[in-house]
Design a protein that fits this description.
- The complex is a heterodimer of chains A (190) and B (227).
- Chain A is built from nine helices and no strands.
- Chain A is mainly α.
- Chain A is globular.
- Chain A starts with a helix and ends with a helix.
- With 227 residues, chain B is mainly α.
- Chain B has helices at 2-18, 29-34, 39-62, 69-94, 110-113, 121-130, 135-165, 193-226; strands at 167-173, 176-181.
- In chain B, strands 1-2 form a two-stranded antiparallel sheet.
- In chain B, strand 1 and strand 2 form a beta hairpin.
- The longest helix of chain B has 34 residues, at 193-226.
- The two termini of chain B are 33 Å apart.
- Classes of the chains: A mainly alpha (190), B mainly alpha (227).
- Chains A and B meet through helix 4, helix 7 and helix 9 of A and helix 2, helix 4 and helix 8 of B.
Chain lengths: 190, 227
C-alpha cells in the first residue's frame, strides 16, 4: 500500500516536469521522433532507476562523513558512466538509432530530471521514508516525468499555433501552460 | 588591444542582456524555478552559478584544442559536481544558518537546491559554446551570463517571495531572521512551482518585447544615418 501511495503521489503530484526539476530534461526527450523517442525514454528510465537505487544505498550509510558529503558527486559520476555505457550500447547494438541519439545521449542521462530522482530518494531517507515509499518514488518519478513529456509535447505543439501575442510565442507560452499544469497538481496535493 | 577590450565588453553585454540565459536562451530553468522561492536563496544560488560558470567555461576554453563536444560535457559535469560538493561543504562550515541539513523539512533552504546546480543546463550548454571561444571571450561571456542569470533569479524571487509570503526575509545569523513585512495577503501558490513557471514565462515574454523594440530603434537609427 505504501508503495502504491509513493508511486502515485510521485507519478502525478511530484511529477518532475510539473514541479520544475526536469524542465531541462524535457527538450532532449520531447524533440526525438519515432522509435528513437522510445529508446531515449527507456535509456532515461533505466538511468533514473539505477541512480535512485544507488542513492538509496548511499543514503543508508549515515555514519560515513565522506559518503554523506560526496553522495552528489558519486551520483553525477555514475550518471556520466551510464551515459558512456548507453552511448556504446547504441553504437554496437542499436546501430539504427545511433545517428539520431549520439548527440543527445549525454543530455538525456546527465540532466536535472535524472539527478533529481536520486536527490529525492536521499531527501526521503533523511525524512525517515520507508522502503516501499522510496521504491514507489524510484519508479513513480521517472514514469511520471515521461508521461508528462508525452502529454505536454502535443499541448506545446498546439499552443505554438495559437493566436497569442507574438512576444510570448514559443517557450514563454509553454512556460505559462506549465504554470497552469503545476497549479492544477498543486490543487491535488491538498 | 582596444579591439580585444571591445569584444570583451560586447561578449559581456550579450551574455548579460541580449542573450540572457534565463529569459532568452531558456537555460537553467530547473534551478530558476526551484531556487527562486526566496530572495536570499536566489542570491546564493546565482552567485554559485556564476562561480561554476566562470571556472568551467575558462577551463574548457583553455583545453578546447584537445576536447570534443562529448568530452567537454563530461569534463564540465564532473567539474561542476566537484565544485557544487565543495561549495556545499563550505556553506555547511561557514554559513550553518542557511545550510542546516536538518532543516530540509522546510524545503525552503538553499542547501536543498544547490545539488541541482551540478547538472544545470546553463553550465553544460555554455561549456559547448566555450569550445569555440578563446579564454578571454569565454571569461567575458560567462561573467555576463552569470550576472544576467543572477539578476533574472533575483527579479523572479522578489516577486515570488513578496506575493507568496507578503514579506521579505533574510537570515542574519543562526536562528535569527530579518523580516521586512509588506502586506498581510499571502498567495502561497506563488511559492510553489506555479510561481516559478509563471514569472519565468511573463518575464521571458517581456524580455522578447524589449529586445524587439531595441532592434526596431537600432534599425531606425541606422536608416537615418544612411539617409
Amino acid at each position: 500500500m505504501e508503495f502504491l501511495i509513493g508511486f502515485f503521489s510521485s507519478l502525478f503530484v511530484n511529477c518532475l516536469l510539473i514541479s520544475g526539476e526536469g524542465i531541462n530534461g524535457y527538450k532532449p526527450l520531447a524533440e526525438k521522433k519515432g522509435m528513437a523517442k522510445y529508446v531515449a525514454f527507456i535509456y532515461y528510465f533505466i538511468a533514473a532507476v539505477i541512480l535512485g537505487f544507488v542513492s538509496y544505498g548511499l543514503s543508508l550509510v549515515k555514519d560515513n562523513a565522506f559518503l554523506t558529503d560526496f553522495t552528489l558527486f558519486i551520483i553525477v559520476v555514475l550518471a556520466i558512466v551510464l551515459a558512456v555505457a548507453f552511448y556504446f550500447i547504441t553504437k554496437y547494438c542499436f546501430k539504427g538509432f545511433f545517428d539520431e541519439l549520439k548527440d543527445s545521449i549525454f543530455d538525456i542521462i546527465i540532466n536535472t530530471a535524472s539527478i533529481s530522482v536520486a536527490l529525492s530518494v536521499v531527501t526521503l531517507v533523511l525524512k525517515d521514508g520507508t522502503l516501499p515509499t522510496v521504491l514507489g518514488n524510484i519508479f513513480g518519478l521517472p514514469i511520471g516525468f515521461l508521461v508528462a513529456v508525452l502529454v505536454f509535447a502535443p499541448i506545446q505543439e498546439r499552443i505554438s499555433h495559437s493566436n497569442a501575442p507574438k512576444y510570448f510565442k514559443g517557450i514563454p507560452l509553454a512556460l505559462l501552460s506549465l504554470a497552469c499544469l503545476a497549479l492544477a497538481t498543486y490543487g491535488l496535493s491538498f | 588591444m582596444k579591439n580585444t577590450k571591445k569584444s570583451f565588453g560586447q561578449s559581456f553585454l550579450t551574455g548579460l542582456f541580449f542573450k540572457n540565459p534565463a529569459f532568452s536562451l531558456y537555460l537553467g530553468l530547473a534551478v530558476a524555478v526551484l531556487g527562486t522561492t526566496m530572495l536570499e536563496n536566489a542570491f546564493v544560488i546565482g552567485i554559485l552559478v556564476l562561480v561554476n560558470l566562470v571556472i568551467c567555461n575558462v577551463l574548457v576554453s583553455l583545453l578546447r584544442k584537445n576536447l570534443s563536444k562529448a568530452e567537454a560535457l563530461v569534463l564540465t559535469a564532473i567539474l561542476s559536481a566537484g565544485l557544487v560538493t565543495f561549495e556545499m561543504i563550505l556553506l555547511k562550515a561557514f554559513f550553518p544558518a542557511i545550510a542546516d541539513s536538518e532543516a530540509l523539512y522546510k524545503n525552503t533552504l538553499v542547501i536543498t537546491f544547490i545539488p541541482f546546480l551540478a547538472t544545470s543546463s546553463l553550465v553544460l550548454a555554455k561549456s559547448e559554446q566555450a569550445l569555440s571561444n578563446d579564454p578571454l571571450t569565454s571569461l567575458a561571456d560567462s561573467l555576463g551570463s552569470g550576472i544576467g542569470y543572477l539578476l533574472a533569479l533575483l527579479l523572479i524571487a522578489l516577486f515570488r517571495e513578496v506575493l507568496a509570503t507578503g514579506e521579505i526575509s533574510f537570515t542574519t545569523g543562526e536562528n535569527v531572521q530579518l523580516v521586512i513585512h509588506l502586506f498581510d495577503i499571502k498567495m502561497s501558490a506563488f511559492g510553489k512551482a506555479f510561481g516559478g513557471f509563471f514569472f519565468l514565462g511573463i518575464f521571458a515574454g517581456l524580455h522578447n518585447l524589449i529586445l524587439t523594440k531595441v532592434e526596431v530603434c537600432k534599425t531606425k537609427a541606422l536608416s537615418k544615418k544612411e539617409a
